Amino acid sequence: MIKNKDKCDILAIGAHPDDIEIGCGGALAKYADNGHTVNLFVVSDGSAGGDSSIRKIEQEKSLSIMKANKIYWGGYKDTEIIINKPIITQFEQIIRETNPNFIFVNFPSDTHQDHRHLAEITISATRYIKNVLFYETPTTQNFQPTIYVDIGEKYLKVKTDLLNAHASQINKTNIAQLSIFDVAESNALFRGVQGRVKYAEAFTPLRLFIGV
Question: Which single residue of 21, 28, 40, 176 has CA 20 to 30 Å from 65?
């Protein structure tokens, strides 16, 4: 998907702190290790899931582990991301500043309204971006991926470290006796089987250009 010899600028967008790590943390860490520039845009403060100041510290810790470049904060309240012109304009400004070759973002079909709205906002704001890929989270629905990134055991471990950085969220899966680590590993194994590798992250494209 992204050749190592072609250094790219990547922007990963998440509705909440830890969405990006759950959806594409392994891939982003792998890209950062291979010399690509990774920036994060976290749109809400995550306050519905915990103390927003703690969640911001956790996100900064994750940034360091991922070896990403910078976090942009949207400043919106958790559950209050709505589709309007000002937020689309804000997205466009960040896209101009980071000038990404690839954008990763929440999938539109989701039981969480922030994820749905964020995807729709991104579709509008990225109309001139060649490569836009949707990732999945535990609340995603109807996800039929066609693109896979082999994260292997190495980047599954990094993904676990990234999720561990979000310590306040580890057991907030709403599934008894199942941590976010369990969810991440089982999904990576399932997507790996689909892609014929051991562990993978999977994506579905809004647009994807293939260099020939």
Answer: 176
